[in-house]
Specification:
The structure holds 2 protein chains of 2 kinds. Chain A is mainly β. Chain A is 0% helix and 54% strand. Chain A has no helices and 11 strands. Chain A has strands at 5-7, 10-13, 19-24, 31-38, 42-50, 53-56, 65-71, 74-79, 88-95, 104-105, 109-113. The mean pLDDT of chain A is 93. By secondary structure, chain B is mainly β. Chain B has no helices and 9 strands. Chain B has strands at residues 9-13, 18-23, 32-38, 45-50, 53-56, 61-64, 70-75, 84-91, 104-109. In chain B, the strands form 2 sheets. In chain B, strands 1-9-8-3-4 form a 5-stranded mixed sheet, with no helix packed on it. In chain B, strands 2-7-6-5 form a 4-stranded antiparallel sheet, with no helix packed on it. In chain B, a hairpin with a 5-residue loop joins strand 6 (61-64) and strand 7 (70-75). Chain B is globular. Classes of the chains: A mainly beta, B mainly beta.
C-alpha cells in the first residue's frame, strides 16, 4: 500500500486566493482526519470523518475552512479566502474506525500564504 | 478527555537511554495510552500503545504504573536518528478525538 497520499506537497499562494488540499486515505480505512501544525499551536485536529460523514468539525478555525469527503478514497480541505495566518503544514491521516486504532499520516502539505 | 502533560524538550547523547514521562491524572478506565514519533518534515507515526504495566516492541518500551496517572516512554541506546518530537496521547473508548498538542522535542547529540 502506498500509504496516505496528499497533494500538493507544497503550496505557495497569495492572500485572498482559494486553496484546495487533497488526501487519499489508505484503502479500507474508514476514518479520516485533517490536522494543522504550526510552531505556536502544535498539531491541531481540524475535522474528522467516519464512513465519509463529518463527525466533528469543532477544530475548523472559521467559515473560511471547509472539508469534504465525497467517497471513501478522497477528501479535500479548502480555504477560501486564504490569509497569511493560515500558513502551516496540513496533515491528513486515516485509520480503521476504532478510537484505539493507530492513525497513519500522510507526508503533509506545506502551505505558505503571502 | 484526559489531558496530558509532557516536557517541551529534552536533550540526550548517542548511546544513552532516554525516558520521557507523560502525566495524565484524569485518565479514565477505558483509556489507552499511545505514543507517536514525528521526524522533521514528516507526519507522526505510531510507536507504541499500552493500558497498564509494561509494553515492549522493537522501537521502545512503555511503562505504566498501577494508578495509570502517568506513563514513561523509554528509548534504549538512542542514536542521532531518534531526534524527533514524541507525542503522548490518551485515547478514550468511544471518542474519536485524539489530542496531540506540542509533544516533547528530543534532540540527540553526538
Amino acid at each position: 500500500d502506498a500509504g496516505v497520499i496528499q497533494s500538493p506537497r507544497h503550496e505557495v499562494t497569495e492572500m485572498g486566493q482559494e486553496v484546495t488540499l487533497r488526501c487519499k486515505p489508505i484503502s479500507g480505512h474508514n476514518s479520516l482526519f485533517w490536522y494543522r501544525q504550526t510552531m505556536m499551536r502544535g498539531l491541531e485536529l481540524l475535522i474528522y470523518f467516519n464512513n465519509n460523514v463529518p463527525i466533528d468539525d469543532s477544530g475548523m478555525p472559521e467559515d473560511r475552512f471547509s472539508a469534504k469527503m465525497p467517497n471513501a478514497s478522497f477528501s479535500t480541505l479548502k480555504i477560501q479566502p486564504s490569509e497569511p495566518r493560515d500558513s502551516a503544514v496540513y496533515f491528513c491521516a486515516s485509520s480503521l474506525s476504532n478510537s484505539y486504532n493507530e492513525q497513519f499520516f500522510g507526508p503533509g502539505t506545506r502551505l505558505t500564504v503571502l | 478527555l484526559a489531558k496530558t502533560t509532557q516536557p517541551i524538550s529534552m536533550d540526550s547523547y548517542e548511546g544513552q537511554e532516554v525516558n520521557i514521562t507523560c502525566s495524565h491524572n484524569n485518565i479514565a478506565t477505558n483509556d489507552y495510552i499511545t505514543w507517536y514519533q514525528q521526524f522533521p518534515s514528516q507526519g507522526p507515526r505510531f510507536i507504541i500503545q499500552g493500558y497498564k504495566t509494561k509494553v515492549t516492541n522493537e522501537v521502545a518500551s512503555l511503562f505504566i504504573p498501577a494508578d495509570r496517572k502517568s506513563s514513561t516512554l523509554s528509548l534504549p541506546r538512542v542514536s542521532l536518528s531518534d531526534t524527533a518530537v514524541y507525542y503522548c496521547l490518551v485515547q478514550s473508548g468511544g471518542s474519536y478525538i485524539p489530542t496531540f498538542g506540542r509533544g516533547t522535542s528530543l534532540i540527540v547529540h553526538p
